[in-house]
User: Which sequence fits this backbone?
């Protein structure tokens, strides 16, 4: 599309890779914009144009993740998701078809070029401060305290029997262990623990599979899309929850189209019945199993099977099969409450809508907010109370968020961007408030269409 070396030319055949040593063809943004279709996607990284149409299916992060940046400048996303850039560039070289014309800006549209420049300078400063280097002892302690809780829960039942009191304590301890395992596998999925990506992936399979019973590949498939395009419909799986819940702009759309599947003006109430209690127990379990079977992730399936084998072999002797199953359900319900409230307190109250093609920093800041830190909140939330810093720098080890936070806050102040920090309880209440607001918008659109 667009003749090679002919900026603004008529659409033509698919471009082949640029020849080594030959001058690179140049393209204008108006040409690149048209290449955002299934089977025909270009993107721009560091002013170079790549045709990812055929290669996207082999992208380690999934075709959807890289496809969400079709026809865009993906430079900052490229830096955010990858540890070893020189290694990844080897895979990009065969896809190179040209570069932006000299007169073209590095970003398309009305993006703030100075903000982009300042954000990249901030990232370089963080690298110079060695904020992307992990402390092994920190993560070793996290894994250690998870394993201790797993053993402690079993010891309660072994020593005191399967009565109500020890069973309740065991369920609470196991739920905390499961919640902390979510956090640790999240760190590993973002390759923020070990220097080598392969070590992170192997450790994530152990934590996600053996300690939780889920697929690491399924989680990464969902979660990386969320980071690439947070709170964007049809790109972020976390907000594609219609018709059960309506969020942001979807409230107006469903109201105008007379789509009345549920009483959405009461969604802030039925949220308590089908949101926190059931997400991990029902939705995640079904989606996770379907992903492993459809995508033939047999290694992940074996890891997940090892979790269920260990759990039921540990507790069936005390409770019988039915009792052990009830204990499992109790643990999943408790951890599901933790998962929903902690992960959504930073996102649902923020802007949720359709793609606006913002620069990396603006898109992440529009979809995230922070929660006031403390030793307890940092631990309890897995440092996801620093959601702004985490979204801007997803591969940064979480113990360094507090160090980069002042730099991010200064950047926001310079460019008039919101750097929102809430008290913990306020952040939780805001989830319900945002659901009620969206439901009221739906009702108004429904009644006045």
Assistant:
């Amino acid at each position: 599309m667009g003749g090679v070396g002919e900026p603004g030319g008529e659409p033509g055949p698919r471009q082949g890779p640029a020849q080594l040593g030959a001058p690179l063809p140049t393209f204008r943004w108006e040409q690149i914009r048209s290449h955002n279709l299934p089977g025909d996607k270009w993107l721009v990284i560091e002013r170079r144009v790549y045709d990812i149409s055929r290669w996207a299916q082999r992208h380690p992060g999934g075709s959807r993740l890289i496809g969400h940046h079709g026809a865009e400048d993906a430079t900052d996303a490229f830096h955010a998701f990858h540890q070893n850039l020189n290694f990844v560039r080897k895979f990009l070289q065969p896809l190179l078809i040209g570069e932006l014309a000299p007169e073209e800006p590095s970003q398309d549209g009305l993006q703030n070029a100075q903000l982009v420049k300042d954000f990249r300078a901030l990232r370089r400063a963080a690298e110079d401060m060695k904020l992307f280097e992990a402390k092994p002892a920190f993560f070793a302690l996290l894994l250690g305290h998870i394993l201790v809780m797993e053993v402690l829960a079993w010891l309660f039942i072994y020593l005191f029997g399967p009565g109500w009191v020890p069973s309740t304590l065991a369920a609470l301890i196991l739920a905390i262990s499961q919640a902390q395992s979510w956090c640790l596998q999240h760190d590993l999925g973002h390759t923020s623990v070990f220097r080598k990506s392969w070590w992170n992936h192997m450790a994530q399979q152990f934590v996600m599979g053996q300690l939780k019973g889920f697929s690491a590949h399924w989680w990464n498939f969902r979660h990386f899309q969320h980071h690439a395009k947070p709170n964007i419909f049809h790109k972020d799986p976390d907000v594609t929850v219609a018709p059960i819940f309506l969020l942001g702009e979807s409230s107006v759309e469903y109201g105008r189209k007379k789509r009345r599947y549920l009483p959405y003006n009461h969604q802030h109430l039925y949220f308590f019945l089908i949101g926190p209690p059931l997400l991990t127990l029902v939705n995640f379990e079904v989606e996770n199993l379907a992903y492993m079977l459809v995508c033939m992730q047999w290694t992940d399936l074996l890891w997940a099977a090892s979790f269920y084998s260990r759990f039921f072999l540990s507790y069936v002797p005390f409770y019988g099969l039915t009792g052990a199953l009830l204990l499992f359900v109790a643990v999943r319900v408790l951890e599901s409450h933790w998962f929903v409230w902690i992960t959504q307190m930073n996102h649902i109250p923020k802007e949720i809508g359709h793609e606006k093609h913002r620069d990396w920093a603006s898109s992440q800041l529009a979809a995230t907010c922070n929660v006031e830190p403390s030793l307890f909140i940092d631990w309890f939330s897995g440092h996801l109370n620093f959601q702004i810093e985490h979204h801007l720098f997803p591969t940064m080890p979480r113990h360094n968020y507090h160090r980069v936070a002042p730099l991010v806050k200064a950047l926001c102040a310079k460019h008039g961007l919101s750097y929102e920090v809430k008290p913990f309880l306020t952040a939780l209440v805001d989830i319900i408030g945002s659901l009620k607001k969206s439901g009221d918008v739906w009702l108004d659109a429904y009644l006045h269409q």
Remarks:
- The chain has 18 helices and seven strands.
- The CA atoms of residues 109 and 357 lie 8 Å apart.
- Residues 1-13 have pLDDT under 50 and may be disordered.
- The longest strand covers residues 40-45.
